[in-house]
Specification:
binds protoporphyrin IX containing FE; homodimer
Chain lengths: 360, 360
Amino acid sequence: MQPIGSIKAEAEVFLKQCYIDEGIAPIFPYRWEDVEEEIAETGTYQQTYDELVYGAKLAWRNSNRCLGRNFWHNLHVRDMRHLETEVEMFQAILEHIQFATNGGEIRATITIFKPDGRRFWNPQYFQYAGYRQPDRSILGDPGNVELTDQAMRLGWHPESQTRFDYLPLIIQLPGQEPRWFEIPPQLILEVPLTHPRYDWFGDLRLKWYGLPAVSNMVFDVGGIQYTAAPFNGFYMGAEIGARNFGDHHRYNMLPVIAERMGLDCSQNSTLWRDLALVELNIAVLFSYHQQEVRLLDHHTLTESFMQFADSEHQAGRLVQADWGCLVPPLSASTTPVFHTQFDGNRILKPNFFYAPLPWQ
Amino acid sequence: MQPIGSIKAEAEVFLKQCYIDEGIAPIFPYRWEDVEEEIAETGTYQQTYDELVYGAKLAWRNSNRCLGRNFWHNLHVRDMRHLETEVEMFQAILEHIQFATNGGEIRATITIFKPDGRRFWNPQYFQYAGYRQPDRSILGDPGNVELTDQAMRLGWHPESQTRFDYLPLIIQLPGQEPRWFEIPPQLILEVPLTHPRYDWFGDLRLKWYGLPAVSNMVFDVGGIQYTAAPFNGFYMGAEIGARNFGDHHRYNMLPVIAERMGLDCSQNSTLWRDLALVELNIAVLFSYHQQEVRLLDHHTLTESFMQFADSEHQAGRLVQADWGCLVPPLSASTTPVFHTQFDGNRILKPNFFYAPLPWQ
Ligand code: HEM
Ligand code: HEM
């Protein structure tokens, strides 16, 4: 999380940019007069809906680690600052899920709650539990062991434990105990994985959800920090195929897939990991396409990012980018991003930041 | 190329480290007295052979972009500072090639020439020419078009033009016209590429050389800049399989291989590039192993690099590393380096630096 220097200073910079970029610069002095007064009286200020919309798009455009920024103009902004209770918030999340999922035609969406320190404990809406087993192995997603511990500490106990149990959504209002809520399964669009050439792939019974919605980042705009402002895009296939299922410290499926493929896993140099990795990614892309759930492969998405870089340059802006996060986890050198040096990696505001883990 | 602050200051820092690390710290004051005097009289100083050896190993250890640093203790240092003419230098290079190639059991080797500004124009000993064709395509290695232009400008003209013509070695003494020399083909260990499963792969008639020897970096040690100090290690397979043959702006073989494999190249999302890339890399590893030319795959090499990082920490040193250059160009997330944040990316001396292109 970035510190706020001075609300007033950050508000002025942001609002000026906002009104200039939106082509309504003449209005700025009037708006600024009101905001200055409001800050003087209350210590903070209310952003208008239009300011919020523009700020959220800018924050996305400024996300140096995001490869999906070519779509930054296309963000649905849901203003939920008027909601108070956890139950109301949960309801709004369910609406976000339905609106954004849109039967598979995923819509980039952000839902913004009151900026009073309220938080989601989950890094994403949908996360599969990772259960510690007596033999020290993990059932489920090893990436979520800590969150699973926390959910169980708060009283969540699934009837049976499987590899793919959704964790409850944990919402915490400022100064209160967190509360948890289970998302109705019928709202969650899921894609069982199959492979265009390997019939046995379906027997692995792998699946993933369609909607990647990040819920633990702070939306920092014009001196205001929205600690609960979950957003979603759609997936790049490799996030699922290379990272979630391929990483050694996640579902670690490469050895299983390589064995099913009949590869010689006795030596690194047969590149069995690499072969299994590509087939796993093919399965992800194939399955999402077949079920008409929107996602992009890493070739198409990196090409789209290069268009973003072009448009930014044409608009006279530098492209701030975190190269290390943008190069795809597989076949990096076959994508244009690998061969490009961007202008810098400066962190501009508005932006999205991580906050310290809520349970620590 | 890094500037030299003061020869004396850099000499002192380096020599002190050298004599302490080598366990002969008590000798340092005597050596330093001599060096100080020599610098006062001549403006520079002669390093001893032992200083040169230690400096070269340190420079390797300090190479933040090198993934082969686990082997830094194992460097053969050839002191050729007494040689004067281009012909003598060329002769020493031929000896370097034979010694380092060692029938395929490649030995990491550096040959150090007089630090008077003499240079090799070639980035590596072995580089395939890239010829501009009337239709604006390139025959050979598109990465070497400029060097090929230069060689031809200097009067080099191959009898016939093929995809795999070695460029001559171009040597320039300070203030003189460069001279070029052709390396006798029988000294160059080459590996024709075949594939363990695809018989047609051999028909592509691809081959690569066994010895990657970098000849255009400046070895900067203790205030002295050795502008001609070519060194070699052995290959990581992916340098050949992913970059040299796979890159769009190099031999660009992925479309050809994918077609031979019968892949559907009409859409990115079939991952035809990724499939072809892995098979190409399998061919490289398979062929080098079969012909007993030393190289390592990216899994084994990154594991070895993690051992290097461990040993450095155990020795109480930080690991300076350029993450972006260390992650392999394919299947990055299956290697440990991808998931590791190193201590920093500070450039320490001694080190190897690039100099401006000699023909500019
Ligand atoms: C529209 C489709 C989108 C695609 C395909 C996309 C793609 C990506 C990818 C591939 C990453 C890297 C993920 C990782 O390796 O951890 C990423 C990160 C990120 N994206 Fe996007 N994105 C999209 C939409 C959005 C939206 C709507 C926002 C915010 C409004 C956003 C903000 C971010 C941020 C803040 C990160 C960095 C997260 C972190 O640091 O862990 N993205 N995105
Ligand atoms: C022994 C086997 C070796 C292996 C497997 C190895 C591996 C590598 C690899 C994979 C790279 C990155 C190449 C690229 O992407 O451009 C690299 C770069 C480098 N290596 Fe090594 N290396 C070895 C030996 C050496 C030796 C003997 C030296 C010097 C004494 C050295 C110094 C360097 C330097 C300076 C770079 C950076 C070059 C640049 O910036 O373009 N390496 N090495």
